[in-house]
Specification:
- With 140 residues, the chain is mainly beta.
- The protein is 6% helix and 32% strand.
- It is elongated and about 95 Å long.
- 6% of the residues are buried.
Amino acid sequence: MSETMWLAQKMKPAVPEAEADQGVSTIVGDEMGVVTRGEVRRLPVYGPGGYVWLPESGASVLVIKGGPGGEEQCVCGGQQAAAPKGMQPGEVYLHAPGGVSVYLKRDGTLELRGRVDIRGSLSVNGESYKPCTCGEGEAL
């Protein structure tokens, strides 16, 4: 091997290593803790843009490890629940404890389950929604 080739190989930047591991959440909130091969605390939690998620304690989570020696770690997802019966590719189903869910179906249907609390204005077919006040104040 020529000296030039040896120098070229030594000058190549090291490729950062990344690993993933399955863990169990132990502490939730600002001090996210996860047990993989040992417990690690203060891990950031990552998700899709605009989505905020806090795993429940004891949840199975995916931990990505980067940097030299894997010391830069983050929680980036959890084990999925079973898909709703008949769910099609491209559909999105968000759910939380208590049976609440948002289901975006490929036929254009938006299915909401649970109590719906609207904060702000509501439009129906482009028109501001005004609840009917018919019969208010009348004795039944």
